[in-house]
Amino acid sequence: MNRFVFALPVILIAASVYGQAGRGASVIDTPHNLSVSGPGGVHAVSEQRVCVFCHTPHAASPVQPLWNRFQPVNAYTVYSSSSLDAITGQPTGSSKLCLSCHDGTIALGSVLSQGQQIQMAGSLTTIPPGSTNLGTDLSDDHPVSFRYDTFLVSRDPKLRPPSGLPAEIRLDANQELQCTACHDAHDNSSGGFMVMSNTNSQLCTSCHQILSTTVTGHENCLGCHQVHTAPSGPFLMQGVNARATCLTCHDGSTSAPNIAADMSKSSVHDTDSSADPIDPIPDHVSCADCHEPHTMNTGQAAAPDVHPNFGQVSGVSLTGAEIDPAQFEYEVCFKCHDDQAAVTPWISRLAVQNNTRLEFSPSSVSFHPVVTTGRNSDVPSLKTGLTPASLIHCTDCHGSDNGASGVSGAHGSASRPLLVARYDTAEQTSESASAYALCYQCHERTSILNDDSFERHDKHVRGERIPCSACHDAHGINSAQGTTTNNSHLINFDSTVAFPSPKAGNVGPIFIDQGNRAGTCTLLCHGEDHDDENYGP
Ligand code: HEC
Ligand code: HEC
Ligand code: HEC
Ligand code: HEC
Ligand code: HEC
Ligand code: HEC
Ligand code: HEC
Ligand code: HEC
Ligand code: HEC
Ligand code: HEC
Ligand code: HEC
After folding, report:
1. CA of 534 to the centre of ligand 8 (A)
2. Where are the alpha helices (DSSP H) in 60-174?
3. How many helices (H) and strands (E) does the chain have?
4. What is the H or E stretch that residue 323 is in?
5. How would residue 2 be classed by pLDDT, with cut points 50, 70 and 90?
6. Is 61 within 8 Å of 68 (Cβ atoms)?
7. CB of 223 sitting under 6 A from ligand 6
8. Short-list 313, 139, 262, 249, CA closest to 271
9. Does the Cβ of 368 fall within 6 Å of ligand 6?
10. What is the average pLDDT across 439-457?
11. Measured from the CB, is residue 521 less than 6 Å from ligand 11?
12. Which of 180, 255, 413, 506 could bond 401 through an S-S bridge, CB–CB 3.0 to 4.6 Å?
C-alpha cells in the first residue's frame, strides 16, 4: 500500500492537468465519474475534477490511498448466518470508503479537502434510493471485512485456498476480503465495476468450490442467490426463503418442473416459512432438507438409494445417528420422521407408533421392504417385476398424486397422508380399483379378491366393505410392540374398527399366525363377534 502514498499525488496532479492518466484513467467513462461531465445519472452541477470525490493530494484523511472522504460511523448490522465461519465485524479498510457513499448516510459532495459541499445536480445530497444504496443494514449483503486465510479455509473446506485466487481478485494488506475483492472502483469494463466477468459464475467459483451439479438450470449461482439486498438476509437468496427462491422458476412460469401446483394440495410438506432456510426441524420443512441445492444431479436411483436430485443431503441412519451425506432415501425421511415424531399417526392402531424409523427397523416383526427385504417369501399378489426380494422407496407410496406423466416428489397430494394414489380408510368403503389404487400399484387386485393368500379377503374387502387399513399397517410393527405370532403380514388392527370380543375370558382384539396362509382372529368387528375364527388349511 505504501507505494501509493508517493505515487497517488503525482497521478492525481497529472489527472487534473491532462484529464486522464495512470491507474484512474478509466473511471472517467463510468458512473463513478461524479464530475459535471460524468456519464451516469448522478453528477455535480459544476465541479470538473473527477478524482476529488474520492481522492485528494492535500488534507486527506489518514486512510490510504489519500482518501478525501469522511469515515462513516460504525453502526452497521453485519451479515450473519448459522453456517458462516468467517469472523465478521464492523466494516474496515476500503469497504468503509465505498460505504461512505453507498450506505446513503454521507452526502456525495461532502469531501475533506474543502469546507463547502460540492453541489450535485437535481439537489441530490446522498446516493439516491435504489439498488446502489445498500443502507446501513448489511445483513443482506455478501459478508466483507473479515480475514480470508488458511484458518478460515480449514473451517470451511468449500472455500478455495486464498493463495490460489486469480490475479484479478485481491484481498487487502490484512488479508481481509473487502468490497474491492469483487469490485474495482475505477474499472467498469466488465460492468458493475466487477474485477472480472461473472459469466458461468466464474467470479463466485474463484472462491467457492461449492457447486457440482448436472442440473443445467442450476449452474448459475445468481439464479438462486443475490449478492446485495437479498430478500432472505442469511444465505443471500433471491426469495425470502428457500421455497420462494426455488419457486421463482419452479412455479410454472418457466420450463422448470412446476412444484407450486402440488404445494397447494390438502396434504403437503409445508415448506412455507419466511424463517431462516436452515430452520430447526421438525416444525418447518425446507426444500433444502431433501434437495441439497449445490449437489443435485439428474438421473434415477433404485431403492433404497437416495435420488440423485437429493444431492449430498444429510440424514439419520437406522440407528438414529446423524449421517452426512445420506446414502439411502429413508435416511433423509428419518431426519424428521423418527424420535422427533414430526406427525401423529394417521390411523390409531393397537400398536401405536409415530417413530417411522422404528416401524421399518430390520428387527421389526413385519414390515414393507423399505430398509431390507421383507419377512414373507409367500406374497402371491405381487405384480410382475416385484418379488419378495424387492426393495421399495418411501416415495413409492408417498408423493405427488400426479401419476406417471406428471411432476413427481414428496411435495403435495390430494390423498392424505401425502400418498401417490388414493387409499380409502373409512369403514363401508366400496371396493374398487381406485379406492385402493395405492396398494394395487404393486399388489394384483385380482389376486387379493381371489383370496390367493387370506381366504377371506374378498368377503371382508368387497362383501363387508372393510378397508385394507382396518387390518394392515402400511409400514411395520416394531418388535418392542408386537410379535411374529400376532403381527405377521403387517397385521396391526385399526383400534376404531376392531374391538375386544365380548365373550368372557377373551383378550384382544388378537390375530394369531398359524403358519402359511393360516391363522385365527378373536375380536369384535363390524358387529360380528369373531371368537377364535380361523382361516386356512
Ligand atoms: C468513486 C471513488 C473513486 C474515484 C472517483 C476515484 N477513485 Fe481511485 N480509488 C478508489 C478506491 C476505493 C481505491 C482503493 C482501492 C483498493 O483499496 O483496492 C482507489 C485507489 C486508487 C489508487 C491506488 C492504486 C489502486 O488502484 O489501488 C490510485 C492511484 C487511484 N485510486 C487513482 C485515481 C485517480 C487518478 C482518479 C481520478 C481519475 C481516481 N482514482 C478516482 C476510489 C476512487
Ligand atoms: C463518492 C461516492 C462513491 C464512492 C466512494 C463509491 N461509489 Fe460506487 N457509486 C457512486 C454513485 C453515485 C454511483 C451511481 C449510483 C446510481 O446511479 O444509482 C455508484 C455506482 C456504483 C456501482 C454500480 C455500477 C453500475 O454500473 O450500475 C457499483 C457496483 C459501485 N458503485 C461500487 C462501488 C464500490 C465497490 C466502491 C468502493 C470501492 C464504491 N462504489 C465507492 C458513488 C460512490
Ligand atoms: C463477493 C463479491 C462481492 C462483494 C464482496 C461485494 N459485491 Fe457488490 N456486487 C457484486 C456482484 C456480483 C454484483 C452484481 C449483482 C447483479 O448483477 O445481480 C454487485 C453489485 C453491486 C452494486 C450495484 C447494485 C446492485 O445491487 O446490483 C453496488 C452498489 C455494489 N455491488 C456495492 C458493493 C459494496 C459497497 C460492497 C462492499 C460493502 C460490495 N459491493 C461487495 C459482488 C460483490
Ligand atoms: C473473493 C472471494 C469470494 C468471492 C468472489 C465470492 N465469495 Fe461468497 N464468500 C466468500 C467467503 C470467504 C465467505 C465466508 C464463508 C464462510 O464463512 O464460511 C463467503 C460467504 C458467502 C455466502 C454466505 C455463506 C454463509 O455461510 O452464510 C454466500 C451465500 C456467498 N458467499 C455467495 C457468493 C456468491 C453467490 C458469489 C458470486 C457472486 C460469491 N459468494 C463470491 C468468498 C467469496
Ligand atoms: C438451485 C439454487 C442454488 C444455486 C444454483 C446455488 N445455491 Fe447456494 N444456496 C442455496 C440455498 C437454498 C442455500 C441455503 C442453504 C441451505 O438451506 O442448505 C444456499 C447456501 C449457500 C451457501 C451457504 C451454505 C454453505 O453450504 O456454505 C453458500 C456459500 C452458497 N450457497 C454459495 C453458492 C455459490 C457460490 C453458488 C454458485 C457456484 C451457489 N451457491 C448456487 C441455493 C442455491
Ligand atoms: C433459475 C431457475 C431455477 C431455480 C431458482 C431453481 N431451479 Fe430447479 N430446475 C430448474 C430447471 C430449468 C430445471 C430442469 C432440469 C434441468 O435444467 O436440467 C430444474 C430441475 C430441478 C430438479 C430436478 C432435477 C432432476 O433432473 O431430477 C430439482 C429437484 C430442482 N430443480 C430443485 C430445485 C430446488 C430445490 C431449488 C431451490 C433451492 C431450485 N430447483 C431452484 C431451474 C431452477
Ligand atoms: C425436514 C423434516 C422432514 C423431512 C426430511 C421429511 N419430512 Fe415428512 N413431514 C415433516 C413434517 C413437519 C410434516 C407435517 C406436515 C408439515 O408441517 O410439513 C411431515 C409430514 C409427512 C407426511 C404426512 C402428511 C400428512 O398429510 O399428514 C408424510 C406421509 C411424510 N411427511 C413423508 C415423508 C417422506 C416419505 C420423507 C422422505 C422422502 C419425509 N417425509 C421427509 C417433516 C419432514
Ligand atoms: C407401502 C406404502 C408405504 C410405504 C412404503 C411407506 N408408507 Fe408411510 N404411510 C403409508 C400409508 C398408507 C399411511 C397411512 C397410515 C396407515 O395406513 O397406517 C402412511 C403414513 C405415513 C405417515 C403419517 C404418520 C403415520 O404414521 O400415520 C408418515 C410420516 C409416513 N407414512 C412416512 C413414511 C416414511 C418415512 C416411509 C419410508 C421410511 C414410509 N412412510 C413408507 C404408506 C406407506
Ligand atoms: C411400491 C410397491 C408396493 C405398494 C404400493 C404396496 N406394497 Fe405391499 N408389498 C410390496 C412388496 C415388494 C412386498 C413383499 C415383501 C415381503 O416379501 O415380505 C409386499 C408385501 C405386503 C404384505 C405382506 C407382508 C408380510 O410380511 O406378509 C402385505 C400384507 C402388504 N404388502 C399389504 C399392502 C397394502 C395394504 C398396501 C396398500 C396400502 C401395499 N401393500 C402397497 C410392495 C408394495
Ligand atoms: C420431503 C422431501 C422433499 C422436500 C421437502 C422437497 N422435495 Fe422435491 N422431490 C422430492 C422427491 C422424493 C422427489 C422425486 C425424486 C425422484 O424420484 O427423482 C422430488 C423431486 C423434485 C423435482 C423434480 C420433479 C420432476 O418430476 O421432475 C423438483 C423440481 C423438486 N423436487 C423441487 C422441490 C422444491 C422447489 C421444493 C421446495 C418447495 C422441494 N422439492 C421440496 C422430495 C422433496
Ligand atoms: C379383515 C382383515 C384384512 C383385510 C380387510 C385385508 N387383509 Fe390382506 N391379509 C389379511 C391376512 C390375515 C393376511 C395373511 C394371509 C396369510 O396368512 O398368508 C393378509 C395378507 C395380505 C397380503 C400378503 C399376501 C398376498 O396376498 O400377496 C397382501 C398383499 C394383502 N393382504 C393386501 C391386502 C389389501 C390390498 C387389502 C385391501 C384391498 C387387504 N389386504 C385387506 C387380512 C386382511
Report:
1. 29
2. 93-102, 150-155
3. 15, 12
4. strand 322-323
5. very low
6. yes
7. yes
8. 262
9. no
10. 98
11. no
12. 413
Domain ranges of the chain: 1-153+170-195, 354-537
Answer whether 287 contacts ligand 10 (Cβ < 6 A): yes
Cell of 41: 445519472
Which ligand 6 atom is at minimum distance from the Cα of 291? 35
pLDDT in tens, 332-371: 999 989 877 667 889 999 999 989 999 999 999 999 999 9
What does the mean pLDDT of the chain come to?
90
Q: Whose CA is nearest to atom 2 of ligand 10?
A: 290
**Which amino acid, one-letter code, is at 394?**
C
CA–CA dist 298, 433 (Å, integer): 33
- pLDDT digits over 10-45, tens only? 444 444 433 343 444 589 999 999 999 999 889 999
- Residues 224-242: what's their mean pLDDT? 94
Cα–Cα distance for residue pair 76/163, rounded to 1 Å: 30
What is the distance in A from the centroid of ligand 3 to the CA of 307? Answer: 36
Residue 173 corresponds to which amino acid?
Answer: A
* Residue with grid cell 446501513, as numbered in its chain: 136
Phi/psi at 333 (5° precision): -65, -40
Instruction: Report how far ligand 7's centroid is from the alpha carbon of 36 (Å).
Output: 61
Amino acid type, 346: W
Of the listed ranges 54-68, 91-105, 126-140, the least confidently predicted one is 54-68
Question: What is the number of other CB atoms lying within 10 angstroms of the CB of residue 347?
Answer: 18
In sequence order, what are the beta bridge partners of 44?
120
Q: Using CA atoms, how far apart are residues 401 and 503, in angstroms rounded to an integer?
A: 44
Query: What per-residue confidence (pLDDT) applies to 452?
Result: 97
Q: Please state the pTM of the whole predicted model.
A: 0.95
d(CA 253, ligand 10 centre) in Å: 17
Which residue is associated with the grid cell 445483513?
A: 139
Provide the pLDDT for residue 528.
87
pLDDT tens, residue by residue, 369-383: 999 999 999 999 999
State which ligand 1 atom lies nearest to the alpha carbon of 53. 5
Q: Which atom of ligand 9 is nearest to the CA of 469?
A: 35
Instruction: Please give the grid coordinates belonging to residue 429.
Output: 368403503
